[in-house]
Amino acid sequence: MQVHRTNMFRIPILGTVLVTSLLAARPLGAADVTVREITQMLVNEQPGRIVTLAGRDLSFLDLSGLDFKGARLTGANLYAADLSQANLRNVDLSGALLDRARIIGADFSHANLSGAVMRLPHAASSATFSRVDAPRFAGADLSHARLVARLDGADFRGADMQGAQLHPYGDGTQNAAARRTSLIACDFSAAVLVGANLSNSLLTFAKFTNADLTGANLRGADLSKTNFFGATLAAADLTGADLDGANFHGANGLETVVGLDLARNVERALR
């Protein structure tokens, strides 16, 4: 698959700054393998053997709808790749780069995404929330992964998210605030989020039933209408979080929560 690059010398001067910034934001280089080659590898996969694309550059490739059959993509560069509706179940994506990848309806269930980086991916086909579009991460290993994304309605049930970093990046400016991770109506039931950083994330209507949030950073997060039934919140930090309508019935470790007195709308939470 050929990638068509813009000739910067034909761009009006007024647009040069914008184009330069966009090019600087993406990794240099081009994919070192074609979609056809990847498809042939997967189709010709021998029983008992796993296709290996570890460390390969797959940036900008259209891999939508592809069944990766548990392939090994450790450290692969998937920058701006189209993974819409792709089957990535049990795939090893540890340390992979997925910045600006298109992941609408992608299935990452039980995939290994430990240490992976996924900043500003495209996970919705429109501005309107649709659970059909939402990617699936059920049972995935997202330990120490870096996510800054809009993943509303995504399935994280049983995922290992220990030490995951889901807080916005930047210097605290208004522009950085616009990059808040949005996890509205996501399902984190039975997920392990020990030491995870979800500060300033949008978690309205999220479900943390029986999840382990020991030591998690939820400072400034929007937790309105969030369900923590049966969750463990020992030493979690709720400083500045919005608890309007949050359900803490049956939650464990509330007596050790940090910053509960500094949270917003505490009186409107259900305990």
Annotate the secondary structure layout.
Elements: H1 13-24, H2 35-43, E1 117-119, E2 146-148, H3 174-177
Parallel strand pairs: 1-2
Summary keywords:
single chain, 271 residues, little secondary structure, Pectate Lyase C-like, two-stranded parallel ribbon, 3 helices, 2 strands, elongated
Instruction: Return residue spans where pLDDT drops below 50 for at least 5 consecutive residues.
Output: 1-26, 171-177
Structural class: little secondary structure
CATH H-level superfamily title of the domain at 156-172 and 180-270 = E3 ubiquitin-protein ligase SopA
Largest sheet: 2 strands, parallel
Helix content: under 10%
- The residue-averaged pLDDT reads 89
Give the CATH level 1 class of the domain at 156-172 and 180-270.
Answer: Mainly Beta
Number of strands: 2
Shape: elongated
Radius of gyration: 20 Å
- For the record, the CATH architecture of the domain at 156-172 and 180-270 stands as 3 Solenoid
Oligomeric state of this protein: single chain
Describe the strand arrangement of the main beta sheet, using strand numbers.
1-2
Distance from N terminus to C terminus (CA atoms, Å) equals 56 Å
Number of helices: 3
As for the CATH topology of the domain at 156-172 and 180-270, it is Pectate Lyase C-like
Strand content: under 5%
Q: What's the helix-strand series?
A: HHEEH
